[in-house]
Design goal:
The structure is a homodimer of 339-residue chains.
Chain A (H helix, E strand, L loop, with lengths): L10 H8 L3 H8 L7 H14 L5 H8 L4 E6 L12 H12 L5 E6 L3 H15 L2 E5 L7 H7 L4 E4 L9 E5 L1 H14 L5 E5 L5 H16 L9 E3 L4 H14 L5 E4 L2 H13 L9 E6 L2 H5 L5 E4 L2 H17 L6 E4 L2 E3 L5
Parallel strand pairs in A: 1-2, 1-3, 3-4, 4-5, 5-11, 6-7, 6-8, 8-9, 9-10
Antiparallel strand pairs in A: 10-12
Helix pairs in contact in A: 1-2, 1-3, 2-3, 5-13, 8-9, 10-11
Chain A binds a DNA duplex (30 and 30 nucleotides) through helix 2 and helix 4.
Chain lengths: 339, 339
DNA sequence: AGCGTCCGTGAGAGCGCTCTCACGCCCGTC
DNA sequence: GACGGGCGTGAGAGCGCTCTCACGGACGCT
């Protein structure tokens, strides 16, 4: 197989052609400052002529670093990978990583066994750094990575007391803004379709709902909350429950666009007009929101930027050994017809 | 950094503990049949006790293979990565790869420079195999990879005469089926919003439209075709043009759901009812189709399966050195309200 | 009994690179 | 003019693994 690709040229070849030692050639390749101008030029010329590119494996082995970064999507989020969340965030990540020497290894753990193997691989130094996308609140991975001393950045808030970098969208603030919008629109009875209680963004958005109501001098009654699982049918069922408990519901904050679509289904089925009878605000601002009927007022989170910032924070840890830090990104309210 | 992670145990350690040589330990790890039962058991026990996992870099270097597979999304599709196409397909790929020793390296080329660097890396043997997702008809990458002898599987049809594996959805058949549906619904004047002429799926879907019309004894007139760029606004504009040219249009096949959404916009703006005045069929069956108004009749392609089959075909080349082959997956017509 | 064969095993040579050391060389300094 | 101190350089020792090769013992054959 190797023969078919022709003999690959090595640092040794480059060095020979440039008339220097392998060590010097290596220095040039790695941008060391302790090389004379002449040597540098000679080596660079040789590299060009030979079409040299370093052998990743050899480099990793010698330097004890893999030059790769894992993008981990842990269970049970894998099924949600098709979620409009991941693609833009991944785009942000790859955009930042492209000009660096790091390659991105996609690690979606589909099975329990796979998850274990993955964790072992990560902790044993299979990668230089890890980006974790996982909505699960109790995910032990960030802590394990932190304990193993592996630079890590998570999307969302990390578990309390775990020293990893993180980038979060301002879920609380965004939800708060959404609910304030409903209040300002004169809505009196504002419920929320929340996410599962074990997923951080879901919890945060619910918290935002509570804060906004409290700020408006109202009581966020627990039975104005119906939890669902971030699916469309889940959103529909939750909305139905809410409607039963509170026939006078006139405002609804739904923790995701997809669930909001379900809410619209339920509302339509119940004969309520949107936004006249019930005003609805979603979260995410996916393409779905624009095409919904009526088009959904929703909270936009800057997903691509989120991915990009994650990558940048990780690079800070990796290449400049900065300590892990956290960043919270602003969200925007996008007002359309539903509220 | 390494110290913080503790000393990693090596094959040597395992061998010592098991009381065998490194060579034998290696044989066990790699499942060679030429090992005695006793030795195998001893080594396996040692591996467990020590928590050994092989060092990827060392293995790659020694064996001259990287144990990694690249998932390449080449320009100009990167922007479309957020497209509902990629996530499910990627899921299919990772699902198949998870239990293997291969890791998936995500290579999205954002820039021209990045694209070049990537190609160099791939061709120089940075990966064992490549999965190419690129709708671009003229993409030179598959041919270059084939020439370099690197096992490759592309999504969609490869360029003529390039010997790589491929997995395609039956775009022609699906489109044909969609248009036949319109014919069966009694539509007389059936136009199509096609994709860009340089993207294979777009071309194939147009071909399907032509075939279906021809089969129904009609002439697929070129001015019943309006090309767009797979965006919503593009679909809207194309539909508007079609409507101008053919006010009597009563059937419309749109080459993607997202464009179909734009078509619905244009139709609504022109005061046409769907499906009464104009029946519309989309392609892809994304979540968008379900939530459209009216819900879109559309052609479903098995995206996750597509990814899975791609991965499987590549593994066939890699591990069983089978020659590259192609597979075409069936598509389904999903009938909803729009046609 | 003698021979060949096979099979499990170990020794050891790399794979291509990084990085530590030590060695000259050319300064500046006293 | 002798000396210390950079600074650019090269030699060489690994990094952890795979894989070839050669070896000894167990067996089957004549």
């Amino acid at each position: 197989m190797n023969a078919a690709r022709g003999r690959r040229c090595t640092l040794e070849d480059v060095a020979a052609r440039a008339g220097v030692s392998r060590a010097t050639a290596s220095r040039v390749v790695n941008g060391s400052p302790r090389v004379s101008e002449a040597a540098r030029r000679a080596v660079e010329a040789a590299i060009d002529e030979l079409g040299y590119a370093p052998n990743r494996a050899a480099r990793s082995l010698a330097a004890d670093r893999s030059e790769s970064i894992a993008l981990v999507v842990s269970e049970p989020s894998v099924r949600l990978f098709a979620d409009p969340f991941f693609a833009p965030a991944t785009l942000g990540v790859t955009g930042v990583l492209e000009p660096t020497r790091y390659q991105l290894v996609l690690a979606l753990a589909h099975t329990e066994a796979g998850h274990e193997r993955l964790e072992r691989h990560l902790v044993r130094g299979g990668v230089d750094g890890v980006l974790v996308m996982s909505g699960r609140a109790g995910d032990p991975l960030p802590r394990r990575l932190a304990d193993a001393g592996i630079p890590t950045v998570v999307a969302g808030r990390p578990p309390e007391g775990v020293d990893v970098g993180y980038v979060d969208a301002d879920n609380v603030g965004g939800a708060c803004r959404a609910v304030r919008h409903l209040v300002e629109r004169g809505r009196r009875r504002i419920g929320t379709v929340a996410g599962p209680p074990d997923m951080v963004p879901g919890v945060d958005r619910r918290t935002g709902w509570e804060k906004a109501l409290a700020a408006a001098g109202r009581t966020p009654e627990p039975d104005l909350v119906a939890a669902a699982d971030f699916t469309r049918s889940g959103g529909e069922a939750a909305t139905r429950r809410l409607l039963e408990r509170h026939p006078d519901l006139d405002g609804l904050f739904v923790a995701s666009d997809l669930m909001a679509l379900g809410a619209l289904d339920a509302l339509r089925a119940a004969g309520r007009r949107v936004p006249d009878d019930v005003a609805v605000v979603g979260f995410d601002d996916t393409e779905l929101a624009r095409s919904a009927d009526p088009p959904l007022t929703t909270v936009r989170q800057p997903l691509e930027q989120l991915g990009a910032v994650m990558a940048r924070l990780l690079l800070d840890q990796l290449d400049r050994d900065r300590p892990p830090t956290g960043v919270v990104l602003d969200t925007d309210l996008v007002v359309r017809a539903s509220a």
